[in-house]
Design brief:
heterodimer; A: 363 residues; 6-stranded mixed β-sheet; B: 825 residues; alpha+beta; 8-stranded mixed β-sheet; 24 helices; extended
C-alpha cells in the first residue's frame, strides 16, 4: 500500500521539476505559484466545514535574487525527496535542514529551519502530496492517547496489535508520525476527549476518568502536531465518536481548539485531512471563570490583542465564540485547567466534566 | 566698512605710514615684524611662499605676453640653505623694468587696479628676494633674455634695506650658451634662502593644484626627493585678458574716495561720480547726490497746508504798501504755487520759498515784490502753516495745534492698532513739541524750517517715546520707534541745496563720509564682469582630468555676482573614483584668482560651505551628515574677484561673505548634481551586476538539477536569464542548408528602453543573402558583418545570412552596457 503512495508522491515531485524544465525551455522565467498563506486568505469551505486557503496567490519567481534562491532550494529539495522515496527512507524536517549543508550549491542551502519547514509545506501545497507521504516527519515525538481502543500499527518491525488501555502503561499509546499506518480494529469508546496540558491528562488518568466514562483521552501537548489532529479526525470519521476539546481558558488555547476543529493557517491546505469540524469546546470557558469562581490571572496586553485578533479570525466567527471572547475581554481574566483544583482534586472528574458533558449531551 | 573690505591699497598705506612715522625702523625690521603677515613665518612656509610668489609672477608675465606658460621650479640643497630657481618662457625683462617688477616691498602695481589678477593675492616677489637676502646674505640672481634678443642679461639684485629700493649689484651680458636659461626667451630667478622641506606636501599640492586651474600651462617641479611635470593641455587656451574697470560706488572706502577727490579733474560732485566710477551715469549721479543731500543737509519737514484763506491772509498781512488788487493777485498765485508743490497736501519750508518766488515772478508785470517782502511773505505763510512765530517775541502767540494734528496723524499711521490711542496721542504731542523751536533755536534758521538729519529725527522720537514710556507706563519698542522715524522721514523733503564743489568736499572728511554713505545707499547696477577671467567649466574639468585619474568629472561656472562693489565668479569642479585615494576625506582644492590656497583650510568659507552641504543626498558617504564627505573625491572651488575677501593678511582663507558663500554652495551643488546621477547609475549597474552574478550561479545549477530529476537533457536557461535581467539577448543559431549553412542572429530586447546594439560578426568565409540593413566588409580574408538594428522594448530583430559550412565566427556586440548584455554563441 505504501509503495503505491510513494510512487505517486515521487511522480508528483518529478512533475513539479518538469514544470520548471518546461519554463526554461520556453524561455520563461521559472516560477512557482502558491496560495497566499495569511489569515486574510483563508475561507470557509462549506462542503467540508473547514477553513481552507482562498483564491489569492503569490508567485515565487526567479525574477529576483530572493525568488531565484527559493526556487533553487526547491529543486534541490525535490531531488532529495524523490531519492528518499526511491530508497524508501525517511528523515526529519531538522535533518533536511542539516542535510542541505552538504549540497554542492551554496545558494541552495537553508539559512534556518523555518525556511526548510516552510519550503516542505510549499511543496505539499503545489504537489498536493502530504509531508508524511514524502517520508518527512517532525522532530518531536507524537502525542499520546489512552482509552478503550484496539488498533493495528504497521511498524518497520511488522504489524503490532495494541489495546490502548490494556496494552499500555499510564503514559498511554504513542501516536506514530504517520497515523495513516494504523488501523482501528475495535473499541469500547463513547467519546474522545482532547486535553491540552499534561497535568490535566494525568489527573484524568489517575482519577480513572477514561475507564469510568469509556472515554479516549488524547493528549494535545499544546498546539497539536499534525499526527494528533489526523488521529482525532480519523477517530471521529471512522468510529463516529464525538470529539471534545478541553483546554486552558485563554486566547492561545482557543487557537488550539481552532486548529483541531477548523485547521491552522499554516496548514490550511490540509484542513480537509486534519480538521475535525464537529469537535466541540468543553472549557475552560470564560463563563466557567464566573460560574465556578475560579482563581485567575489578569489578561496581559498580548492576551487582549490575541483575543481581539480572534474576534476577526474567520474561524471564530460564530455566536458561541463571539460571546465567550467578549465576556473574557469584559472580565479581563484568564484561568488554567488546573485552576479547577481550587475546588478539590476530584472536582474536575466528579463535577466539572460530568456536568459540562451532560449539558453538551455527550453523557 | 567690514574688515574684508580693506584693500591692499590701504595696507600699503599703513606700511607707508609706519615707515614714515618710524624712520628709525629699517625695512628689514619691518619685514621681521610682519613676516607672518607676509607668509614667511617659518622656514618651511617661507619656501612655499617664495615658490608661490615666483610662480604667480611667471604665470602673469607669460600670460600678459600671450605666451603659453612653460614654467620650471627647482629646489636644490645648497649647503645650509635651499636654492630656489624658477624659470619661465615669458617675454623676459630689461634692466629698466627691474625696479617695476622688484619694486619696493609691498608696493605692487596691482594694489589699486580693479582687475582680477594673481598678484593681488601675494605680496610680491620682492618679499621673497628680501627674505632670501636677509637669511642667506646672497643676492637674488635674475637671468633674462627678451624676445628676439641675441644675448642674455644676468643681474645680481639686492634690496637696499635703508631706502627699500632694488639695487643691481652685478650685471653681465652672456651668450645664450653661457647662461642657465633655456629656450629662446624668458626669465629665471634664483634665490638662496633658509628653509626646510617639512612643507613638502604643501609644495607639491601647490604645484599640482596650480596645474589644475592652469591647464594651459606646463609646470615642472623638482626638489631633492622627487620631480614631476604637469603637462599642459594643448586644447586649453590661455585665459582671456581682463580689463581694468573703474571702481564701483559700492566697493570704495572713505580713504580711497578722499584720494580720488584730490586727484580728479571734475568740479561738481555729479561730474566726479560720473567720471571716476563705473556704472554711474547722470541719473545714478543725481540719485547719489540726493542721498548725499539727505545725509549732509538733512531733510525738511513738510506740514499740511492750511486753507486758502489762511494763506491769503498771511500773504496780505506780510505785504505793506501795495495795491490791494496786486496783493490779491499775488496771494492767489502763492496759493496756486503752493498747491503745485505740495505732496499729499504738505509742503516744506523750501517749497514755500519756491512757491513765493514763483508767485512773485508770475505777477511781476503788475507789481514788484522785492526780496525783503518775499522773505516776509515766506515767513508769514510758514507761520500760518506751523503756527509758531517768526521771532522769539511772538512765542507767546504760538498755536501749534496744526503741526500737532499732523504728527498725531503720522504717529497713528506708523504705530500698530494694538497701541492704546491715548498713549499714541500723548507720544505724538510730545514729538510734535520737538519741532517747535524754543529759546535760542527760534533764531536758528534750520530749526525754524525744521531741517533735520535722520539721526535727529530718531533722537526726537526716542525722547518722546522714552518720556511716554515713563509717564504713560506704556512700552514703545524699537520697531515702533523706527516705524515712526520711517513715516516722518518719508514725509520730509530732500532740500534743493547744491552739494559742495569737489575742491571743498575733499577738505571735509565728514562730507566725504556722507558721500560714501550716499553711494552705498543708492541702487546701482552691478559692475561689469569683463574685469574677471573665470577658468570656465570646460577648463576646470580639463584641469581635473589632467591632474587626477578619475572615473568621473564635472564642473560648473556660475554667472558673475557682486558683493560690496566687487564682481566675483565662483566655479566648482568634482572628480570621482579612479586612482583618487578612497580612504578618508575628500580632497578640497581651494583657489582665489587661480592661486591655490594651501593653509588654513578649516577657517576658509569654501571649506565651511562644503561641510554644510548634505553630501548623503549626493550619494557620498558623510559621517554624521555633516563635514567634508569621505571617499575618492576631489572637490575644487575657485573664487575669482577683483577683490577676494580674505580672513587675514596672509590670504590663506576666503572670508565668510554671505553672497560669496551662496555662490560657492550653488556652484558645488551644480557640479555635485552630475556626480549624484553618475553614482546613482553606477550603483544600479553594480546591483544589476551583483544580481546577474548570483543568477548566473543559480540558473545553471537549477537547470542541471531539473534535468537530473526529470532525467532529460539540460535545458537552455539563457532566455530566462536575459528576461530576468531585462537584458538584451543576442543569440546565434546555425542550420545546415544544403552545401552551406544559414546563420540566424536574434536580438531580443527585454529591457524597458529602446536599444540599438552594434553587432560585428567576423566570418572566415564570404557570407551571402544578408538581411537588409546589414553590411559586409572584407579585410585580410575575413568578412566583417556589421549590423545595427533598432530594437524596441520587448521586440526582437533577426539577422540572417548564408555562409559555407566550414566557416567559423566571432560575434561581438557593442552599444549596450555590459551588464545589460547577454551574448550566446
Amino acid at each position: 500500500m505504501s509503495t503505491d503512495t510513494d510512487a505517486d508522491a515521487r511522480q508528483q515531485l518529478i512533475d513539479l521539476a518538469a514544470e520548471f524544465y518546461d519554463q526554461f525551455e520556453r524561455g520563461d522565467v521559472p516560477s512557482m505559484t502558491l496560495p497566499t498563506r495569511t489569515k486574510s486568505n483563508i475561507e470557509y469551505d462549506e462542503a467540508s466545514d473547514v477553513w481552507v486557503y482562498g483564491d489569492r496567490t503569490s508567485t515565487r519567481s526567479a525574477n529576483s535574487v530572493r525568488g531565484a534562491r527559493k526556487l533553487l532550494k526547491a529543486i534541490y529539495t525535490i531531488e532529495f525527496l524523490a531519492r528518499q522515496l526511491d530508497e524508501d527512507r525517511s528523515s526529519t524536517l531538522r535533518e533536511l535542514y542539516y542535510l542541505s549543508e552538504s549540497w554542492d550549491a551554496e545558494e541552495a542551502q537553508f539559512n534556518g529551519q523555518d525556511e526548510s519547514n516552510k519550503l516542505v509545506e510549499d511543496l505539499e501545497i503545489v504537489s498536493e502530496v502530504k509531508r508524511e507521504d514524502f517520508h518527512m516527519r517532525p522532530e518531536e515525538s507524537g502525542a499520546t492517547l489512552i482509552g478503550p481502543l484496539e488498533l493495528i500499527e504497521q511498524t518497520r518491525r511488522g504489524e503490532r496489535q495494541i489495546h490502548c488501555q490494556k496494552d499500555v502503561g499510564e503514559g498511554g499509546y504513542q501516536i506514530p508520525n504517520n497515523p495513516d499506518t494504523i488501523e482501528f480494529t475495535d473499541h469500547d469508546t463513547d467519546f474522545v476527549l482532547c486535553v491540552e496540558t499534561g497535568g490535566m491528562r494525568d489527573r484524568l488518568v489517575e482519577n480513572g476518568f477514561d475507564t469510568e466514562y469509556n472515554c479516549l483521552i488524547v493528549h494535545l501537548k499544546g498546539q497539536p502536531a499534525r499526527a494528533t489532529r489526523r488521529v482525532t479526525k480519523r477517530l471521529h470519521d471512522e468510529l463516529d465518536l464525538p470529539v471534545l476539546v478541553f483546554t486552558d481558558g485563554d486566547p492561545w488555547s482557543y487557537r488550539i481548539f481552532g486548529s483541531v476543529a477548523y485547521g491552522s493557517i499554516k496548514s490550511a491546505h490540509l484542513s480537509k485531512y486534519l480538521a475535525t469540524p464537529e469537535a466541540r469546546y468543553v472549557g475552560i470557558r470564560p463563563q466557567d471563570i464566573v460560574e465556578y469562581d475560579l482563581p485567575t490571572d489578569p489578561l496581559a496586553d498580548s492576551d487582549v490583542n490575541a483575543l481581539e485578533s480572534e474576534l476577526e479570525d474567520p474561524r471564530f466567527q460564530d455566536e458561541f465564540w463571539t460571546e465567550q471572547i467578549e465576556l473574557q475581554l469584559d472580565i479581563g481574566k484568564k484561568a488554567e485547567q488546573q485552576a479547577l483544583a481550587a475546588n478539590g482534586l476530584d472536582f474536575v472528574t466528579d463535577t466539572y466534566l460530568p456536568e459540562r458533558l451532560t449539558d453538551m449531551g455527550v453523557l | 566698512m567690514t574688515s574684508f573690505q580693506q584693500t591692499l591699497g590701504e595696507e600699503a598705506g599703513i606700511a607707508e605710514e609706519l615707515a614714515e612715522s618710524q624712520r628709525a625702523i629699517s625695512i628689514a625690521e619691518f619685514f621681521e615684524k610682519n613676516k607672518q603677515m607676509l607668509g614667511f613665518d617659518s622656514e618651511a612656509r617661507a619656501l612655499v611662499t617664495a615658490v608661490k610668489e615666483a610662480v604667480d609672477n611667471a604665470l602673469d608675465a607669460t600670460e600678459e605676453a600671450r605666451i603659453r606658460p612653460n614654467i620650471s621650479v627647482e629646489i636644490t640643497e645648497s649647503g645650509d640653505y635651499y636654492r630656489l630657481a624658477v624659470e619661465d618662457n615669458g617675454p623676459g625683462i630689461t634692466k629698466a623694468q627691474i625696479p617695476k617688477i622688484f619694486g619696493k616691498l609691498l608696493y605692487g602695481s596691482r594694489f589699486h587696479a580693479r582687475e582680477q589678477s594673481r598678484g593681488q593675492q601675494g605680496i610680491g616677489i620682492s618679499a621673497a628676494v628680501l627674505y632670501s637676502q636677509l637669511t642667506s646674505g646672497k643676492p637674488a640672481k635674475i637671468t633674462s633674455r627678451t624676445k628676439g634678443s641675441e644675448t642674455v642679461m644676468e643681474f645680481e639684485l639686492v634690496i637696499d634695506t635703508d631706502d627699500n629700493e632694488p639695487e643691481i649689484r652685478d650685471e653681465r651680458e652672456l651668450t645664450p650658451g653661457e647662461s642657465d636659461l633655456g629656450d629662446t626667451h624668458g626669465t629665471r630667478i634664483e634665490l638662496e634662502m633658509a628653509g626646510n622641506m617639512r612643507a613638502r606636501q604643501q609644495l607639491q599640492d601647490y604645484i599640482k593644484h596650480t596645474a589644475v586651474v592652469n591647464p594651459h600651462a606646463t609646470i615642472s617641479f623638482s626638489e631633492p626627493n622627487q620631480e614631476f611635470v604637469a603637462k599642459a593641455d594643448y586644447d586649453a587656451d590661455l585665459p582671456e585678458e581682463t580689463e581694468e574697470i573703474r571702481p564701483h560706488p559700492h566697493g570704495v572706502e572713505l580713504g580711497n574716495v578722499l584720494k580720488m577727490l584730490k586727484a580728479t579733474d571734475s568740479h561738481s560732485v555729479s561730474g566726479f561720480l560720473q567720471t571716476e566710477f563705473t556704472r554711474v551715469g547722470r541719473k545714478t549721479a543725481d540719485n547719489i547726490v540726493d542721498a548725499f543731500r539727505d545725509r549732509h543737509y538733512g531733510r525738511e519737514m513738510a506740514w499740511s497746508l492750511p486753507d486758502d484763506d489762511a494763506v491769503i491772509a498771511a500773504v496780505t498781512e506780510a505785504v505793506n504798501n501795495k495795491p490791494a488788487e496786486a496783493v490779491g493777485a499775488f496771494a492767489d498765485q502763492v496759493v496756486a504755487a503752493l498747491g503745485d508743490r505740495a505732496a499729499d497736501g504738505r509742503v516744506a519750508h523750501h517749497q514755500v520759498a519756491a512757491a513765493v518766488e514763483a508767485a512773485a515772478e508770475a505777477v511781476e508785470a503788475e507789481a514788484q515784490f522785492g526780496s525783503t517782502v518775499r522773505g516776509n511773505v515766506v515767513e508769514g505763510v510758514w507761520t500760518a502753516i506751523t503756527g509758531y512765530g517768526v521771532t522769539s517775541e511772538d512765542e507767546e502767540a504760538d498755536d501749534t495745534s496744526r503741526i500737532r494734528d499732523d504728527v498725531r496723524a503720522h504717529a497713528d499711521a506708523a504705530t500698530s492698532v494694538q497701541k492704546d490711542d491715548a498713549v499714541v496721542v500723548a507720544f505724538a504731542d510730545r514729538l510734535a513739541a520737538k519741532f517747535v523751536p524754543e529759546g535760542d533755536d527760534t533764531e536758528d534758521l534750520d530749526a525754524r524750517r525744521n531741517r533735520l538729519h535722520r539721526d535727529t529725527v530718531r533722537d526726537y522720537v526716542d525722547r518722546a517715546a522714552d518720556m511716554t514710556e515713563e509717564r504713560e507706563d506704556a512700552t514703545f519698542g524699537d520697531t515702533a520707534r523706527e516705524n515712526v522715524v520711517e513715516e516722518l522721514w518719508g514725509t520730509m523733503v530732500t532740500v534743493p541745496d547744491d552739494p559742495p564743489k569737489v575742491r571743498d568736499l575733499a577738505a571735509d572728511r565728514q562730507g566725504v563720509g556722507d558721500l560714501v554713505a550716499a553711494m552705498r545707499m543708492t541702487d546701482i547696477i552691478a559692475p561689469p564682469t569683463s574685469c574677471l577671467s573665470p577658468i570656465s567649466a570646460e577648463l576646470v574639468e580639463a584641469g581635473l582630468r589632467k591632474e587626477f585619474d578619475a572615473e568621473f568629472y564635472s564642473a560648473a561656472t556660475r554667472d558673475a555676482e557682486v558683493t560690496a562693489g566687487d564682481p566675483f565668479v565662483v566655479e566648482a569642479g568634482i572628480a570621482y573614483g579612479g586612482d583618487i585615494e578612497a580612504e578618508g576625506q575628500a580632497q578640497l582644492l581651494r583657489y582665489a584668482n587661480r592661486v591655490p590656497l594651501v593653509y588654513k583650510r578649516g577657517g576658509c568659507a569654501i571649506t565651511q560651505v562644503i561641510q554644510d552641504i548634505g553630501w548623503r543626498n549626493y550619494n557620498l558617504d558623510q559621517p554624521g551628515g555633516r563635514g567634508v564627505p569621505n571617499g575618492p573625491v576631489v572637490i575644487m572651488v575657485h573664487v575669482a574677484s577683483t577683490n577676494v575677501p580674505f580672513t587675514s593678511e596672509s590670504k590663506d582663507a576666503v572670508a565668510s561673505v554671505p553672497e560669496i558663500e551662496d555662490e560657492i554652495e550653488l556652484a558645488v551643488r551644480e557640479a555635485a548634481r552630475d556626480l549624484k546621477s553618475y553614482l546613482k547609475k553606477q550603483r544600479s549597474m553594480r546591483k544589476r551586476q551583483q544580481k546577474q552574478n548570483v543568477l548566473a550561479d543559480i540558473m545553471p545549477r537549477m537547470a542541471t538539477k531539473v534535468a537530473e530529476v526529470t532525467g532529460r537533457p539540460e535545458p537552455n536557461y539563457d532566455d530566462a536569464l536575459a528576461r530576468i535581467m531585462n537584458n538584451v539577448l543576442v543569440e546565434r543559431e546555425t542550420t545546415e542548408n544544403g552545401d552551406g549553412q544559414t546563420v540566424t542572429v536574434r536580438i531580443e530586447n527585454n529591457a524597458s528602453t529602446k536599444e540599438s546594439p552594434e553587432l560585428t560578426d567576423i566570418v572566415t568565409a564570404e557570407p551571402s543573402n544578408l538581411t537588409d540593413g546589414a553590411s559586409v566588409v572584407e579585410m585580410d580574408g575575413e568578412w566583417f558583418v556589421k549590423w545595427q538594428p533598432e530594437v524596441s522594448s520587448g521586440d526582437e530583430a533577426v539577422l540572417e545570412y548564408t555562409v559555407a559550412t566550414d566557416a567559423s565566427f566571432d560575434l561581438s556586440v557593442s552599444g549596450v552596457e555590459g551588464p545589460k548584455l547577454t551574448v550566446t554563441n
